[in-house]
Amino acid sequence: MNQGNGFIETFGRPPAITASAPGRVNLIGEHTDYNGGAVLPAALQRRIQVALAPQEAPTVTIKSTRFDDLIERPVGDAKRGDWTDYAMGALSKAAELGWLEGGVKLHIESDIPDGAGVSSSAALITAILRAASSAGHVTTTAVAIAKHARAVENDYIGMPCGIMDQMAVGLADHGKALALDTSDLSYDVIDIPEDWGIAVIHSGVRRELADGRYKARFEECQAAANFLKTEQLCQLNDAQRNAMAKMPDPLRKRARHVVTEHKRTLKATEAMKADDLDTFAALMNESHRSYSQDFEASTPAIDDLVNDALNIGAKGARLTGGGFGGCIVALIEQSQLEDWIAELLDRHENAWRV
């Protein structure tokens, strides 16, 4: 559906502006982004599209093609704990920045699955901020929008995420990966080799970061950083690395994952640039073991899915996203990809291709 047409069908008038943003899959580098480390996400073909227009009433009227209801909320409404919070947070940030004033009619269309670990929330917030900046005739940058989008998640939603998702959906296009150093936001956009087949498979286990487990891991990483007297857990000196052995579990295990994941991501970035599929895949496999055993963010169903993915021919496979459900990402030679996906899905009836 054309976003302008969807807006007209819902509100009986054309929108003032439209914008979009893609979902993302993180190839490697989990929970390193808020610890000052490296990440390597890639953009998906799936996107969120938004259309908006100002309205005189001091309300926000929201229609998503995912839901039947037309939802109205007061301008500046506080968080309620439902999906519209992400839209309201983005619009509140746009008002705070002077990009929008007053009420808004908003139409949302998305083929990015929710609760899958592929950044549907970051894409929605980013798309709205892009639309708002255009509506306000504001010249800004993708990095600035990413910072504002992260602030929405941190301050309005209450999710203590890093900036990886917002940077990925704002700077990467399909077929490219974003090698990002979150300690200083320096980045490099890398072409994914054409013969690399990358599959994103939903485990069938819905992921809810708001249930507290993501926040618990964030707080454990903060506690580990405090123990080691550092602000960036991924950037330890020799004395701090030696001191990790003195930390109690689970802090030691959390720190070990984050520190080794940062190193793996740096190596994986070089492997992608060198078109070294086997090295990249081996690093993905090491990443999943660390994510499952040291960070304890996997589930039995996901571990089984990863194991089967490897057993039937994937070179590398790992849980992707914030953990506790959602998707795996697998790497296989492009020529084998479709047959491999069909066999994996045949073995896992609750799994599906993203």
Q: How much helix is in the residues? A: 40-55%
Q: Over all CA atoms, what is the radius of gyration?
A: 20 Å
Q: Look at the helices and sheets and give the structural class.
A: alpha+beta
Q: Per CATH, what is the topology of the largest domain? A: Ribosomal Protein S5, domain 2
Query: Which sequence of SSEs, written as H and E, runs from N to C?
Result: HEEEEHEHHHEEEHHHHHEEHE
Tell me the count of domains.
2
Write a brief caption for the model.
This protein has 2 domains: 3-191, Ribosomal Protein S5, domain 2 (2-Layer Sandwich), CATH 3.30.230; 196-353, Alpha-Beta Plaits (2-Layer Sandwich), CATH 3.30.70.
Describe the structure.
The structure is a single chain. The chain is α+β, with helices and mostly antiparallel strands. It folds into two domains: 3-191, Ribosomal Protein S5, domain 2, CATH 3.30.230.10; 196-353, GHMP kinase, C-terminal domain (Alpha-Beta Plaits, 2-Layer Sandwich), CATH 3.30.70.890. It is 42% helix and 23% strand. It has eleven helices and eleven strands. It has helices spanning 3-11, 84-96, 120-135, 142-157, 164-171, 213-228, 238-243, 251-273, 277-293, 300-311, 337-347, and strands at residues 17-28, 38-55, 59-64, 70-74, 103-110, 176-181, 186-191, 196-202, 316-319, 327-333, 352-353. The strands form two sheets. Strands 1, 2, 3, 4, 5, 6 and 7 form a seven-stranded mixed β-sheet that branches. It has a four-stranded antiparallel β-sheet with strand order 9-10-8-11. Strand 9 (316-319) and strand 10 (327-333) form a beta hairpin. Helix 2 runs parallel beside helix 3, helix 3 (120-135) packs across helix 4 and helix 4 (142-157) packs antiparallel against helix 5 (164-171). It is globular. The two termini are 19 Å apart. The relative contact order is 0.16.
